[in-house]
Amino acid sequence: MPLRLQAITREEHLAFIRTRPSISHMQVPSWGDVKPDWRAESVGWFEEDGRLVGAGLVLLRPLPKLKRYLAYLPEGPVIDWHASDLAVRWLEPMLAHLKGRGAFSVKMGPPVVVRRWNAEAVKAAIADPGARWLRDAEATSHEPGAAGIAERLRRMGWRQTEPGGEDGFAAGQPRYVFQVPFAGRSLEQIRQGLNQQWRRNIKKAEKAGVKVVQGGYDDLPAFYELYTETAERDRFIPRPLPYFQRMWTALTAEDPNRMRLYLAHHEGEVLAAATMLTVGEHIWYSYGASTSRRREVQPSNAIQWRMMTDAHELGAAVYDLRGITDTLDESNHLLGLLRFKVGTGGEAVEYLGEWDFPLNRLLHKALDLYMARR
């Protein structure tokens, strides 16, 4: 029997989220407030007895001049992905509901892990001159059931977005991320899991007098100044300051601990800054920024260690450093960021990636052509 799917209130959605240990920060109601170009709707899956058993945040992006929408569930929805009747019970009601809302295409990112590579395996892959992609390196572990879920999606007509791009990043959310497992580990065990360079750099920052403090809304311009410098250095297009101000206002209104800002000070100057997001037992290092000045005092390591310390105190089971490149090409500028994250002693994690379902093939194809030309 298909589950009943309908729109739910923010309060119902938040109550459901509180029952789960880990849900993406892009699947909380306030994330819709961060994206004003999209119309947000919370949806819920209900059993016959009225129990809410699944939920998702849907972002609806209108096509110009048409009342038709791209429906997007970033890193969601939160349902029983391992159910044998995934298609009939869970996904078909969602497609029917979104089609009724005027969606011509649906994009989602199942929060399903496929493979993991521990730090040693990633370092070995980077050091292997014959290795070009992390996806081709032997994984440390495989998650049972992930291949079956992918096969069921394909049979339904869902199409997987390939990693794509010269650096392994696709449009949308990252398929490959780097995470440090915290569950069952003391802070000292986590510290011992850092590589020697990381531990040395943290001590160097302490000795140099780097002070990491929590900031607030009024400190976002200081973060943004470093962020734009980082964007120029690392060759990405920066988001505007109002995006981060909106993000702070929306997320902290929902939960005062949902978003934090950290700044690393040295001799009266802010050298690095970063944002941290929390949902349940999952904590993310979200955006990071630093200046090229006085890098020898290691502000980036100092800020990460303070965030990891606070995350452990908050009861995090996972500290998530978000996206990593899939390429192992020495000439790629993103490889340095991968090496930095590997130094935490965590693991590279591959998710199932993002999937598309065209409800109207003509409009979906037009969107594909538009995106390809951007």
TrEMBL record:
Any one GO BP annotation for this protein: cell wall organization
Example of a GO MF term: aminoacyltransferase activity
Organism: Streptomyces sporangiiformans
Gene3D superfamilies for the chain: 3.40.630.30
Matches recorded under Pfam families: FemAB (PF02388)
UniProt protein name: Aminoacyltransferase
SUPFAM superfamilies assigned to the protein according to its UniProt record, in alphabetical order: Acyl-CoA N-acyltransferases (Nat)
Keywords noted in UniProt: Acyltransferase, Cell shape, Cell wall biogenesis/degradation, Peptidoglycan synthesis, Transferase
ATP-binding found in the keyword field: no
Record-linked InterPro entries: Acyl_CoA_acyltransferase, FEMABX, PG_Glycine_Bridge_Synth
Record-stated family: Belongs to the FemABX family.
